[in-house]
Amino acid sequence: xxxxxxxxxxxxxxxxxxxxxxxxxxxxxxxxxxxxxxxxxxxxxxxxxxxxxxxxxxxxxxxxxxxxxxxxxxxxxxxxxxxxxxxxxxxxxxxxxxxxxxxxxxxxxxxxxxxxxxxxxxxxxxxxxxxxxxxxxxxxxxxxxxxxxxxxxxxxxxxxxxxxxxxxxxxxxxxxxxxxxxxxxxxxxxxxxxxxxxxxxxxxxxxxxxxxxxxxxxxxxxxxxxxxxxxxxxxxxxxxxxxxxxxxxxxxxxxxxxxxxxxxxxxxxxxxxxxxxxxxxxxxxxxxxxxxxxxxxxxxxxxxxxxxxxxxxxxxxxxxxxxxxxxxxxxxxxxxxxxxxxxxxxxxxxxxxxxxxxxxxxxxxxxxxxxxxxxxxxxxxxxxxxxxxxxxxxxxxxxxxxxxxxxxxxxxxxxxxxxxxxxxxxxxxxxxxxxxxxxxxxx
Length: 443
Description:
Elements: H1 2-14, E1 21-28, E2 31-40, H2 56-59, H3 65-69, H4 115-119, H5 134-151, H6 154-164, H7 170-182, H8 186-199, H9 206-218, H10 220-226, H11 230-243, H12 250-256, H13 262-276, H14 280-283, H15 297-314, H16 317-327, H17 334-347, H18 350-365, H19 371-391, H20 395-409, H21 414-418, H22 431-442
Antiparallel strand pairs: 1-2
């Protein structure tokens, strides 16, 4: 033991670093005894904490001692300088981010705070759909339909219906859409039938369409006051909806026995007749006719020629105006002007020229034919006059007379008269021979 102790003393005296190897003294049974074993003691780890003092030089701003004292960062030397518990601990702190969504906060100072009703748990929340009057609903439906008539985009119309029309008012939407279409052109009725077919299944259902038709059939006596052919139009809508598989065919069977009203039975009979025709389901796709711009050019030209021939026979300007509107091709009215001028050239009759001039003047006064369309029709004739004169030798003379008549009536401008073509003088002989020819003729 002595040798061991001496060796330990020597080690202590000779060792420079006293913290590497030290004797271990143990007290056992009240006596001090020195163990011959030695143990290595670890150095305490030095943690480098970045304090605001060390950043003073870098930032140029020094916090006061009080701010260091009240700092809520970890002080045990092992943290990263972040707030304790992620900001959730301590008094007067904001708490853990997002914790405001998890806790039920009740403000006693809130005017709507009611401690009795909020704490007993007997509150039941339900979605309340406000009641909409018929006038308010019509104000919402009409802009949607008018915009759809302009652009023809069913997807845009579907989004508008979903955003503005409540789910339990979709049957009223179908009803109002059909009523609005009744006051418009056949092409708009065709677009309405297409809209109902496209919205069926995801915006409106079979029950909505069925209820809408039942309401329309019941309101037929009132609809006839404003729309005389409402029975025929409604029958076409019902037949078209059945052809598009929006409502079942049994709708007509169930509707026949519900009412004995004359208008009611007329509309149901119209739909039954259309569906009973041979290949009726296929033909019903054109129940409203083909839209103006979708018709072939030859068909439109033929209809305009028949319109002019009928007018020459009857001299009925109102009927001619109605037929022109029914074609629904305002961008193609220059063809009517062209056909009218060619008909006047081929007729070579003062009475027909006067009648056609009167018709064009009436169309110009009613703005059925715009000034641009009128001039375009005349210019087309001017361009084709060399070919027309091959069939009508007096075409230049007749055209000059007809244009002068129209100019006097006031619907042809000077722009047209200034571009009126004229046939050049045809030379048979030279000027020297012409003098000789005249002299020889006199003698």
